[in-house]
Amino acid sequence: MALEIERKYLVNHEKWEKSERTDGQFYRQGYLLTDPNKTIRVRVTDTKSFLTIKGLSVGATRPEFEYEIPKDDAKQLLDMFAIADLTKIRYKVLFENKVWEVDEFLGENEGLIVAEIELLNENEVFALPNWVDKEVTGEQKYYNSNLSSNPFKNW
């Protein structure tokens, strides 16, 4: 079983807009199951598609199983079985030898920008880019599965 150790932060819009970054990649993802203890997600990007199963978060850690699947299968799963979905542009930013994934949400979540960093352990020390604002690790309303059913525009 793989473990995902991830910290999540809100992003300062003004500083993010001024920062250097590569082109982002469009993501469409939907949920076949959203439960506080587990989620099953299908994700389609420009180049690949995945089926991901995540367990209950304890601190910044949770079990995660992720498998690449054929793109046509992923699109059919999203169209036929997703109970909620969302879209976003993901940017990958290298800062101080760590990769940050910054999501600019679209549609019902437009205006929300969240940055995530995956760690080797929960106590790992890392530097924060200047565009990082408030930490929201563990705040369930910022989980993508929750954003798909209770979007940012409704807050």
UniProtKB/TrEMBL annotation:
InterPro entries: CYTH-like_dom_sf, CYTH_domain, NeuTTM/CthTTM-like
Domain CYTH: 2-149
Highest taxon in the source lineage: Bacteria
Name of a matching Pfam family: CYTH
MF annotations from Gene Ontology: inorganic triphosphate phosphatase activity
Protein keywords: Hydrolase
UniProt EC number: 3.6.1.25
The protein's name: Inorganic triphosphatase
Lineage: Bacteria, Pseudomonadati, Bacteroidota, Cytophagia, Cytophagales
